[in-house]
Amino acid sequence: MHNIDADHFVVGIAPVADGFAGTKTSDVIKVAGDGIEFIVFTGVGATGTSIFTVLACDDVTPTTTAAVTFWYKEITSDPGDTEWTLATVAGFTRAAGSNAMFRIWVPADHIGEKGYAYAQLNAVEVVDSPVLGGVLARIVNTRRQPQSSTVIT
What we know:
β5 (about 50-55) and β6 (about 65-70) form a beta hairpin. By secondary structure, the chain is mainly β. The chain has 1 helix and 12 strands, in the order ββββββββββαββ. The termini are far apart. It has one helix at about 110; strands at about 10-15, 25, 30, 35-45, 50-55, 65-70, 70-75, 85, 90-95, 100-105, 120-125, 130-140. The strands form 2 sheets. Strands 1-12-4-10-7-8 form a 6-stranded antiparallel beta sheet. Strands 2, 3, 5, 6, 9 and 11 form a 6-stranded antiparallel beta sheet that branches. Helices cover about 5% and strands about 50% of the residues.
């Protein structure tokens, strides 16, 4: 079983009305452990589209970035989700319709191949149609151990 305490969660883009207007980038996040997953979720909205890419970053500013390949899949209603699809560095276009969610998975070695240790999600709006949306980032298997609650005296 996966040790869920080994994962770390970060708000990439806080949920907001017109969450993907223009060009939006998530916070720059250090990729530790096995990699990083971005979970994009939308609420009330219309039919706008955005191109999503993942950027490897050299530091938290970021001073230099490079697009990387990644995997993505939509989270759909039961009985299951769509299959994982490999995206090129050009990313993929996704309709930002109401009440939708999809996952973007980037193995740590995709970031490391660029010589970088950080990543961010980039969304460029192609068709303007506001949608409430946000991004949650999960750093997978950071190998951090929980702190002991025992005090040694």
